[in-house]
Fold each of these.
Amino acid sequence: MSATALEQSLLDHYRWFHRHPEPSYEEHATTEHIRRILEEQGIEILKTGLKTGLIAIIRGGRPGPVIALRGDIDGLPITENTGLPYTSEHAGYMHGCGHDFNLTVALGAAIELHAVRDDLAGTIKVIFQPAEEGRATKERPTGAVQVLNTGALDDVQAFFGTHDAPGEVGAIYIKEGGTSGAVDKFAVTIHGHGTHAAEPTKGDDVIVATAAIVQSLQTVVSRSIDPVHPAVLSITHLEAGNTWNVLPSEAFLEGTVRTTERVDRQIAKDRAVRIIENTAAAYGVTASVQWFFGSPSVDNSAHWAAVGRRIAAEEGLETRPGWADLGGEDFSYYLDHAPGLFVRIGAGDTNAPHGPTFAPDPHGIIAGVRFLTAIAKRALAELADPTDGHADCTNEND
């Protein structure tokens, strides 16, 4: 397939995916459409037991290392208001974060790599992952965890992925180290003794105690985290009482902490819990704290970031410095398994992600395909012979 024909085909596929968004763990039509495209190309699909999403496999002509590429496939519960001619046909849902863009990049790379499979030494697994946006619970973890739990990726030595981003169309944004926020949640119940509002000395004022806790928690980032490390603590929910003249016996608050550095993640928890418990004690009440560690930060390998910059230059692609933000991204779970690189692909002035007017420029897709295809080839070569003029590729995330 010529480059022009491939690009047109991928744009057609992208528009289909954009018109048919599906929520996390319900991406049935999306999965089947991806399956049909892959099968038409003669690309093998692994049997994994996944209910939605799938893993394709490209077996090189010679034995060698195993790497993986990832695209995510789920949409969001948002009513689209972009005015695009290929706007969502599923009421109340849209691809409001660009997963249609990301999966099309992975699809294009799979097609390109399959076409040259006889020249490859090694194996490439291409993940079309469900539920990146899904709210993770112990019973229903995020999509990356479910994919890893199949065991199909146990032999993978390096992971690579892309995500659309605001910026110059087709530019590759690369950053080593932490690039997303570790997603941690806390929930706190303040316990005291309720009383009439006219007689506060006969009970405890859990509302005043809660207000003090909220204020004090803002010092976690400002006084406990290195000021050059991105981090934020936000209180997002407060609840206490149900009438105007009674001091309640309980109050509730919850929120989230986002950090990019592993050491900061534990510091934030330890400091927050001490503040909550000790501030409560100072007001004569008690606090029950629940802390939930979600997905870690995406921690890009410095080695693979350097390789990515070289690859982009060789492909004639523009490269730009990447950045860290504090949104969650479950590609981080793959990088806990093996090192790799997660890059952003410029998609123009997209408007705010997770909003009804979000609209990446799909003409950035082909740049993502070129990058992902090229770094896959390079990764197989380097992992097969890490002494071939390059740094060692061992897991830098251990």
Amino acid sequence: MQYSLPTLFPVLAVVVLAAHGSASAKTEVCHPASDKQIAALFDRWNDSLKTGDPQKVVDNYAPRSILLPTVSNKPRLTADEKLDYFKHFLEGKPVGTIDFREIMLECNAAIDAGLYTFKFGDGSVVKARYTFTYVWNGHKWLITSHHSSKMPEPE
């Protein structure tokens, strides 16, 4: 038996509304944010690096988040995987500075992307591209994705 789209539309509408709630369901309340507040989230993350405590760094990430790190080929999905990465990364005593950034704001979400430089305790420097995506969890901003990769071209 074949059904035409006009015949199926009422059925599809009921299925969609049942899956996502009715049209009168509660609406999302957007947490206000400014570029300055989102920029400060990098400072919060960078300050946690300076503590040398990998758990303090990992606490910046949402439970469901991804880290695509600068100096590792392995994506880090779990808190334990991120902890393992930062345990080794922090041994070098990294301090990051932003060289260029673009911030985009959405309802309860933000993107901070650009270029940063890491200086390490041994004097070495790594220039990299980065993207942090954040979500407001109702209490604070948390990182949902963090991509960082070394600059591909020599200066």
Amino acid sequence: MTQQPFSRPGAFDLSSLRRPTPSANDAGGPGSGGADGSVGSAYSIEVTEQNFQGVLEASMTAPVVLVFHSPTRSPESTTYAAHVTSVVDQFDGRFLTGVIDVDAVPQIAQAMQIPQVPLLLILLDGRPASQPIPGLLSGEELDTLFQTIGQQLTAQGVTGRHQPRTAPPAEGAESGVDPRYAPAQDALEAGDINRAVEEYQKLVDGNPADVEAAAGLAMAKVLQRTQDADLNAARVAAAEAPDDVDAQTMVADLDMLGGHVEDAFNRLIALVARTAGDDRARAREHLIGLFAAVGNDDPRVLRGRQNLASALF
């Protein structure tokens, strides 16, 4: 198998594809299950018109592997799609599989100019990041492909992971405070923010799929960044420098602490919309961290993700 170069931006423009607004029962983003298209895997989603925008947005955190298949025209392609999903699951969130039945959603395949099934297409930052990969690859070829992409991403400084679509409770966990989080919670109660960050970081390093630890770490970092901040001075600085990423993210953090969650999101979404390059990337990354602190199932986060996608595309 010839390795495809992995690049950031993509090879094709998806701007012509209609992006429907997710319905109340179809959030479309990673981290939810069942109604949003879960196909029985921690890191896969059945792609529909309704959740396609969420799949695009998910690729801004880590790559999404789209696998196109047709159960009527090519039954082996459907078997292959399940095989790709199984291989991707072994990478613990480094990738998310988006399974696309071209018979059920032909408009997506047409918009993306998919010539045949089976076919793989890898998205990053909402765009294809490699040439399409047609045909049936063996398990060994798939493993090599995803390992190579993972190494290239790491070399580029891209280390994000998808949250699992289903998070089973920890073995032996009971109602009340999970003992895994006790050291971090104790540090927060003692006012030792730096130690709380360290404790949450240990949990995330040990299990990147731990959604609660990731959320705790994100919020602890907000507390850490704002320990010595002066709200009035921060607002003055942000007003005087509307495109200064540091000034704007500081006010967004302070808004979060004050309970003005949507204000924080909207400030950074507007910053993403009017900046470019490294500044845009920093603003987007900071916003995604705030999303994690609030929780992916929160309706304010779902709206924020939609608005972020609109700002980017």
